[in-house]
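Below is how a single chain appears once it has passed through the pipeline. First comes the sequence as given, then the structure the pipeline wrote out for it. We keep one example in the README because the format questions we get most often are answered faster by looking than by reading.
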Amino acid sequence: QENMIKLHHNNVLKDTGTKRMSQLPAKLYHFLRVVENLTPQCFQKVLRTEARSFLLKDSNPAYITVQVKEKGRYLFTYKVPESACAKTLCYNTSASTEGSGSNDVRVLQLSGLLALFDELTTLAIVNEDDSARPGVSTTLSAELAPYGLNNLPRAGENIDVDVRVIKIGKNFSFLEAEAKIPESGKIIAIGKHTKYLGGISYLQSMALGWFLPVTSFASQYFVSSVSSLTRNVEKIKSVEDLVEFDMNEASNEGSMSVGLQHCNPMKSCHGGFQAMAMEQMAQNHLAKMQKGSESYQLQSIAIDYISRGKGKLTFCTKVTPINDLLTLVNVRVKGKGQAPISDGVLYFIQNKQNSRL
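Resulting structure:
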């Protein structure tokens, strides 16, 4: 089987003229080709984690490289794109604002790192699992390391993401991830991911398993039917363009309609986007509590995913001060008929000065 995959893989490269990243595993290459050709990658384009960023080295200035360090361990190098960043105060960035008259700079926030962990851990599972099952998220969490509290990555900077596959079972998989500074190895954030792998049909199992190279080759004939769905996503310049709530100040709720730009390849609201929307929603309410130069920074986030998010979603927040420095914000996302979509637990720390360690 391995020889067949390698032989077919070489033929595909000759047929399509695709310039493959030299370190991309053959199995992952074929899977990404299927994803690129058969599914709309919408929110992934904002993160710059769409399949093309892996498949073509020069296709995107924010392309990603991957190294298989050992079985179950992958090292991704990611160039942070402007589109995935949001404005924040300069206490947690390396940007110099002297003489600029502004403290606002753009960084990849913790919820953005969580979205990145979601994408990269999924690719690790695909490469490790015999049937290349991407699965669906059940829980996702991320926490800033002490260094990361004052050193969130800025647009244009490179970060390393070390992904470890802890276990793959019949129905569930468990993974861990660390975001690091490439030069020093200092940890920015750590994350955990649990995925449900069941519910896949026999036909899907065969298409993504033994016959994955054939599926990859055949998928190129369906590209045109998918590309038209993602054209409007190319116009999105920032994740902030995606997070627009219709606010209800009296009930601490904000609603929004899910479009393709918010979705994963299965056309439901991306779990990573839900995390970024939760952080923004929480910040909207914490802003009302700020006094003077005080501000709030997300320290940790944990999300339970309950059902697929489609149509109109409502984000409900509850703010609970823990002490003078720590504040808990619970965010529940509801769908049609008040059906629960996801539950988020976010802890914010209060910053009273602008500094970088």
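Residues 3 and 9 are 10 Å apart (CA to CA).

See the next section for the split statistics.
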